Sequence to fold (390 residues):
Amino acid sequence: MKNNKQRKIGIDARFYGPVGKGLGRYTKEIVDNILKMDTNNYYVIFLSPQNYNLFNCTNKNVKKVLVKSRWYSWQEQIIFPWQIYKEKLDLLHFTHFNVPIFVKTKFIVTIHDLILTKFATKKASKLNPWYYRLKYFAYKLVISRAIKRAKKVIAVSEFTKKDIEKKFKAKSEKIAVIYEGVIDFSGFNLEKEDVQFSDKKLLSSYNIDDKRYLLYVGNAYPHKNLEGLLEVFKKINKDFPSLLLVLVGKKDYFYKKIINYNKDIGLDFSKVIFTGYISDKDLQILYKKALTYVFPSFYEGFGLPPLEAISQGCPVLSSNQASLPEILQDAALYFNPYNSIDFYEKMKKIIKNKHLRQELINKGEDVVKQYNWYSSAHDTYKLYLEELKR
Fold:
């Protein structure tokens, strides 16, 4: 796309890459794809110390700016706006809700979910109670002002859009729904002989070998309901004693709590594999070899991991809450995460029924075609152009 008049567009990419987990994936894909499709306008990419060297772009119309102000900090509110002001931008895109209150530049903001308005609990933080309350108050102030002052709000699902309208009384026409995409794993394909070797080597390194396993990929925040997953798996393991549960995610404060919970309920650690963070190449193998992917979350604004599982031919057992039925459509077997009996029965059903698993895989092939990062970036870029004309 071309625009005769060059404009100066900024993107807050401090979450770019793995530093922001799912948010990092979103930011990276949006930034990389927009810079490929637009060589006419001038871009200022704001980056953190963690990803400044990770972002490499040789385009002459792209400038990197190092922002030492960490997200959710007072420096973000005081220092970052000054850095933005100095760039004299025509438009700025914040890829997350944390928009500095004192920013004067015209901006668009992406809201991924309203999780903190739904699960405002001390369990979701390692901060002391008083500091947590202060941070929660600041969160509500920042996100409400961001939605109110933004020229346009990007929601990643219809569910999230309705959530924003209801919670913050935002006008429907102000909110644009732009779905996320699915990572292209094709770049990790190896030769057939190497794939077999890599599969065996990876699975063996986690003591999985040829055993059947259920897979979960993501963080361990309380709303992800991993405690509920462990409880149901303990019960299902009595029916299928050779079955394993593999949990993939960086071993942070919340994962350590889940590991301790696993110990508290007496679940055999040889049956539950905590991999820690793994590369996308290794993740592709785990998706392809899993019996099924399990997503027990109480709340999701989009639900990227189960969609990634579907893209790799992995049948999905998913919570029926929030945006998940909208995004996964008929490519998942759903259960009520608040009902452990339903959760158990559906898990047992998908484990036993090979025909059902294949049916979900087949349906998933059509569903996953609806989501790609180029389209997400293209629709986001069109939104930039619309706002620049105003």
In short: The chain has two domains: 8-181+372-389, 185-368. The longest helix spans residues 129-149.
